[in-house]
Batch of 2 targets.
Target 1
Amino acid sequence: MDKKVTTPIHSSARRNFLKQSSAMVALALAPPTILKAGDKKVEDQIAGYFEKVPVKLEINGKAHALSIEPRVTLLDLLREQLHLTGTKKGCDHGQCGACTVHINGKRVNACLTLAVMQGGNKITTIEGLANGDELHPMQEAFIKHDGFQCGYCTPGQIMSAVACVKEGHAESDDDIREYMSGNICRCGCYTNIVDAIKDAKKGGKSL
Amino acid sequence: MENKLKEPFMPPIDRVDGKLKVTGAAKYSAEYNIPQMAYGVMVGSSIAKGIILSMDTKAAENAPGVLGVITPFNIEKPAGYNIETSGNISATKKGFNVFDDKLIRFSGQPIAIVMADSYERALHAATLIKVNYKKDSFQTNLEKAIPVVKPLEGNAFKDYTRGDVNAWKTAPVKIEAEYNIPIEVHNPMELHAITVHWETPDKVLVYEKTQSLMDTQEKIMELFGLKKENVHIITKFIGGAFGSAFNVWPHAVAALIGAKQINKPLKVVLSRDQMFMNVGYRPQSIQKISIGAQPDGKITGINHEAISMTASYQEFTEGIVNVSRMLYDIPNVFTRYKIYPMDLSLPTWMRGPGETTGAYALECAIDELAHALKMDPLKLRLLNYSDTDLEKQRPYSSKYLKEAFEIGSEKIGWNDRHPEPRSMPEGDWLAGYGMGSGVFIGWRGGAQVGARFTADGKLLLQSAVTDMGPGTATAMTKLAAETFGISPDKIVFEMGDSSLPPGIMQGGSGTTSSLGTTVNNATLSLKKKLFELVKNKAVFHTETIHDVKFEDVVFENGQMMLSSDHTRKMSYSDILESAGLDNIEFIEETKGFNNVDYSTYAYAAHFVKVLVHPATGVIKMEKIVSAVDGGTIVNDKTARSQIIGGVVGGIGMALMEEGVVDNRYGRWVNNNFADYHVPVNADVPHIEALFVNKPDPILNPMGSKGIGEVAMVGFAAAVANAVFHATGKRIRALPITPDKII
């Protein structure tokens, strides 16, 4: 491969520009004591400030006005910045479904979308599924049918399961299996997951 | 008085941590937020073997937010972290300590940790490191290594001989075959993660994904020269592990060193691709089996030889061939096990280590013999059923494999199977039935459990154990409820913290046996203490009983009652109150059990029906029944999930899982979930898990034997045998992918 092509010219150029310009801003604004420190820390803080983008979004019914670096995925925003760790990271490549959340009611892998793309959107995570202390019928059904063991894929499975029923993709066992195949469960609880989804669906409660 | 599980059993209970898991409130090792926490990203080597000549870390160090970069060139070894190495490649068989030398032993070996104030900044900076290597020739191909590399020597590799090693050769009916299993990777859904917080220079709090709190604590104590009370490990939840979370892996040590250096709490999470070369795998194996039998089906001799692999720098062994020494009643047995050091990372235990590998080959070979004999494979197994352990020359404490065969074969409809291969078409598909049996040792180690019963009727139990998914707290809660006679919702089983009374590792199918025994003994102690607290025992006295003894009372529904007259009773709370106590608190300790007079094994009988599409080679799992003799089942609901889970692991092993290394570069090819296939929902039919549920009288007071591993052992053979029955094709190299069928 041609080495020139692999160098991310654009991003590094932008980064350098930001660092240079931030140094200039620092020079103009900073009191002399900090300037003397003349160090990377100041540069870092200012670089960080310039690299962030304002985003307004709604998570579990709560409005958030955030300032986010454009490269932050929705998954990392939830887990690392908002400490909503119910949404799980299993692969970071959209291959396992552990990070499934609802964006405007549709299931999405949170690792495959950048947080800055979600401006104005309504996001529901596993933490927002229950009605206070009252579990969502799908959560109840997963407990009743033991649709999990280690519990790590479970939030993603449940978010996916709720969407699966709403999409009309839970009309038969085979349907459920097909449309739940984007959520890997390495403990292998698929038999119980199918039972849980069927039960929640026929339970008649609003999903 | 005995404290055995009562009949009829209390109905199964839901997982006690279910609500935490379905709401996202369960916290795994990467999910603790500590103020000022930094993020560490590991950098792996891009060559398989050689020496690092230089590393340019300047760009990474100067990148925004970076707090530190540690490499073998700049490491400041913390006190106690002082491991000698000789510095040349030939002398590497003494383990691998991260950043300790400049040798590369495998592709992806951690060579740097980059720490920054955000995950994104650390991740970016990690890409800026430039490395200059001197490459060395390497070997990652087991087949090519065999003729040129010397296998390891030692006690683990001594041949086993019973009777005449040539017996199989002179038998009138014989088969000989070679079976191959590729590398398989645990791939738990949770990425291995560690969060480290040095509270003082010699006191550390660690959130680590570990199946053994005590071993992890000890290893960190040793590595950093710390006192036990200053190493605090918390593992409240584990997102699956299957054997990958026993070792303190290099990334965890790097995190400990890094957090110390930057003097900030530090979190390190491996990426999925890093999980393939940093936290172990099931090693590749090549097995040769030769069996001879009389025309009536009586097996006269078996030879089982296995070749497998380990890392160049550390030995890993597992009992692959052991299964052939004891599963059947065979007078003449020879087994051989060799491993070759490879330029790959260290393999480790993976669900049913040894047995899963060995039973696949043995149970396929038994099926081949049945075909050669023109005999029903189930009948052949029953004909050679072993009633005593011929290897150890002692009886089994219990063996209900026959019963498992019975209930399993009936449920799948084994008797409707046409014996001839390729004789059961179903439309465009070919149907086939296959079976395989599994075996795994039952054992019991020592464990401590803290118990506190309070006047409000609640029981708190504590033990330093972790749970990777089977539901240890649930099983212990159910057990305590049954043996102490209170409702499960009055019980809290607290675990996942090294400061609790030392428990046992979670693994080897021994947690319930070991910990359950101590819980059982704790509730017995509690009952005795309650009995002793009753100073005025007149309430229990009748015309015939004037001096009530412990043996005369029973404990049910929170009441101590006279067994012959349940109206004479006293509630536990009243007993405490009348004794003027708020609670009873103590630590129960039970030593491990040295099982010398008996052999204890759990068994599984797996039956499957597959449909094979001859034109495309597609294989569909159509029906699965797994019947298990795991002794008494403590909590049926969660136990069933363990069996289902083991079976799904078996489907992966049989049909899709294959770790592929590009031997030109010694590098992983398919280190992600898109390319390393594991079963998804659509691959799995409804699985029937059945239990014989008869107590083992020897191993522990519950009568349980352990089920986590045996659920998977022998399953892949059942699938392979079913594929043969469907198509007449014997595929002896896993996974059985469509290309091998057509």
Note: The CA atoms of residues 322 and 355 of chain B lie 7 Å apart.
Target 2
Amino acid sequence: MTQQELNVPEKQETRGELTRAGRTYVPQVDIFETKEALWLWADMPGIDEESLNVHLDDGVLTIEGQVDVKQYAEMSPLYTEYNVGNYVRRFTLSNDVDSHRIVARMQHGVLSLEIPKAERAKPRRITLTQ
Amino acid sequence: MTRFRMSSGFDPVAGLLNLQRELERVFDKPFGIDLGPSGRGVFPPVNVFADKTGCVVKLEVPGVAPEDVAIEAAGRTLTVSGKREVPQPAEGSFHRRERGAGQFSRSLQLPTDLDLGRAEASYKHGILTVRVPKKEEAKPRQIAVNAA
């Protein structure tokens, strides 16, 4: 395999008005679908399990993370390339997911969500009767 | 050059606003730090701070396991390299692919009054922090006045 240089787009700010003050960023995501489930991975550096909030409301999945700025106390920036802010992103899911069995994990600043499909939405093989 | 420090014990909203304002103010204005042919849009993005003990370099490396990062110090150059992998499921299909994968390497030249030999690195929630203390002779010290 050839070596691939890793390039990432700059952090993108959330559009629209939010109730919280300050800049909010859109985490970058990968979304993958298998027969059984939808998988979602979101880059949220600096966010731990406690400051993460994932909820599904009326078919809208919201992922939110609140940054902890206490670690920046007593420091003054000399050079900066990225800004620090809370994360938020919303997705509209179809009704064919099993909202009670969603599993969320946070590792190395990446949120991973496993969203199982509802039984009725899974592909079925239909056998022919003679 | 006026700089203000973020004080501890602030309320979180004001703290965040303050920090964001501060970070924005110094965007693209390196002070004695040479980043070579790199800049924004390059992975990983880096922020450099000063504190009482020296210098704090923070890099956003979400999804990079700490064992996949190599940090090297030579002279006044700090190099951080590694690789990031994203899941590659065998069956199924991607609806969105925004997260990149691959090798990365970044070098920064730090001011000469820092002691890279005593640098320490830590990793937490996808953020790599390298603390580089000031050299002993660069630290402020009291000079006693001798009575003649």
Note: DSSP finds one helix and eight strands in chain B.
